[in-house]
Amino acid sequence: MSSDYDTHRLILRQTQSEDYDDIAEIMERVYPGALEGAWTREQFESQIRRFPDGQLCIEDNGKVVAAAISLIVKYSRWGHDHRYWDIVGDGYLTTHDPKGDILYGVDVFVHPDYRDLRLGRRLYDARKELCEKLNLRGIVVGGRIPGYDKYKDELSPRQYVAKVRARALTDPILTFQLANDFQVRKIVKGYLPDDKPSAGYATLLEWINIYYDEPSDGIIGGRPSDVRIGAVQWQMRQTKSLEDLFMQMEYFVDAVSGYKADVVLFPEFFTGPLMAPWNDQGPAQAVRHLAGYTEAVREEMSRLAVSYNINIIAGSMPEVEGDKLRNVCFLLRRDGTWDKQYKVHVTPDEVSYWGLSGGDKVQVFDTDFGRIGILICYDVEFPELPRLMAEQGMNILFVPYWTDTKNAYLRVRLCAQARAVENECYVVISGSVGNLPRVENMDVQYSQAAVFTPSDFAFPHDAIAAEATANSETMLIADLDLDNLREIRSHGSVRNMKDRRLDLYELKWK
User: Fold this and answer.
1) Is residue 138 part of a domain?
2) What residues pair up with 12 in beta bridges, in sequence order?
3) Taking the alpha carbons of 286, 290, 291, 292 in that order, is the dihedral positive or negative?
4) Which pLDDT value is given to residue 218?
5) For every residue of 307-342, which 3-state class applies, written as one string?
6) Is the domain of 181 the same as that of 306?
7) Is residue 505 a part of any domain in this protein?
8) Annotated catalytic sites, by residue?
């Protein structure tokens, strides 16, 4: 596998018949000579034919690199003492019951070269979404405990499982399943009799669908309108190396992704501490040296987006192209793709100290949680830009900023709040705090990250979904309902977009 995360193009989809060779290759790598190796082609095609929705895979540039197999069962028919090959119909899923109440996990496997990308977690999350969509009670899986082989002479299976649950021991499979919100319900003997590393034992685990509706009228639609966002209020601190910066970046990505957020926002110029070694050369030269790190930071952010399964809006950083120095924000998607948005309006200070130039376009970006826009700091103070974005279907506007004083911050905040009302969208802002004694023109920071909403009955009374403590390093988590935007645009107390007098005026991009 290439270590360049820019080459990944990850797609989660249903498995197709033509994927057999890729999947057989993975299974032979994962189960070499054990547990029957790969499925036969007949078993594989039967699985797809009987329950296509339950067969999921992840492809990278056209090659399948991970897969999950599931079926639906009426669990009362099987009970807790079932055996693997019985409940999976000898691999053909002949036991699949469309009228059942439990999604049963048959297998999940990931190509060994891709195990650092957390693809197994993506497949588990996809199963949960399928379970909710089909309005099933939950998911049940039988989990091998291959780590037990080293402890079977000193620990009983029950003792071993207890130590793994307490994190005193790590099991390659059970630890992963527990981390994905599954709970052990029973230890089963003889679940897979030929599984020697597990001594024939397995754990029966359950994930409960808290959205299950009984009695069910059929398939329910899930929660496609919910978006969970995270914003990092970044502490500026002396940073000795790029590795120090990467460690702090990964800390926050890890923390925010732990809350199952869809996206995380970093502040404008959060890489600023790396300018310190060149401070004596003056700010114009220091910021150009900082631009030398931008490509490496973007690549690392792309790696984190893929690895932690979260979209990242990477604040902003300087970029030199020819003789132009510009301020750029990267959008790193969790499927490995990326885009960028330049700062259009530059402040007088940025021109005089750094010689910064503005970009020449704005755009709306498609993501797996909706259409978004990005404006860097000063740009949000110009109402024309968000209005152009709103006309292209923007639902959430992200604004990374850097401000030194409270009055500078208030310009960004108040304008962001106005943009949320004017364009009937959410606006997320975040900046940095602290100080940088050896970085001229970035020595003082002021920030209070926040998430703003339109002002109507479907939203908080003060039109603020969340806000951080001012001038403290922290992160902000908020849930946003896109259905509320659709509602006010059609039936709100006021309808700013719909009620424009386009017979009198219009806005055009030259």
Assistant:
1) yes
2) 58
3) positive
4) 40
5) HCCCEEECCCEEEEECCEEEEEEEEECCCCCEEEEE
6) no
7) no
8) 268, 343, 377
Both 437 and 362 in one domain: the answer is yes
Which residue type sits at 224? P
Domain end (from 150, 179, 208): 208
pLDDT score recorded for residue 3: 46
Helix (H) or strand (E) holding 204: strand 201-208
Indicate whether 194 and 258 sit together in one domain: no
Q: How many domains does the chain have?
A: 2
What the block records as the tokens of 297 is 């930071």
Instruction: List the one residue out of 137, 50, 132, 139 whose CA is nearest residue 98.
Output: 50
pLDDT per residue as tens digits for the range 400-413? 999 999 999 999 99
Q: Are residues 248 and 344 in the same domain?
A: yes
Question: pLDDT-based confidence at 489, cuts 50/70/90?
Answer: confident
Same domain, residue pair 186 and 231 = no
| Residue 173 shares a structural domain with residue 246 | no
Structure-block tokens of residue 367: 């993501």
Chain segment 240-256, per-residue pLDDT in tens: 899 999 999 999 999 99
Going edge to edge, which strands form the sheet with 396-400?
364-367, 370-374, 396-400, 426-430, 450-452, 464-467
The reported pLDDT for the residue numbered 4 is 53
Alpha carbon dihedral 494, 496, 498, 500, in 10-degree steps, equals 120
Within this chain, do residues 31 and 110 fall inside the same structural domain, yes or no? yes
Distance CA 75, CA 140 (A): 9
Query: Would you say residue 276 lies in a domain?
Result: yes
- What is the model's pTM? 0.79
Q: Taking all residues of the chain, what is their mean pLDDT, rounded to a whole number? A: 92
Residue 268 has pLDDT above 90, yes or no: yes
Q: Please give the pLDDT value at position 200.
A: 87
The first and second tokens of residue 340, run together, are: 């960028």
Domain with 420 in it: what CATH number?
Answer: 3.60.110.10
506 in any annotated domain: no
327 and 402 within one domain? yes
Chain CA centroid to CA 275, Å: 30
**Which pLDDT value is given to residue 5?**
53
d(CA 135, CA 129): 10
DSSP for 14-54, written as a single string: E--GGGHHHHHHHHHHHSTTSTTSSPPHHHHHHHHHH-GGG
Range of the domain at 365: 226-491
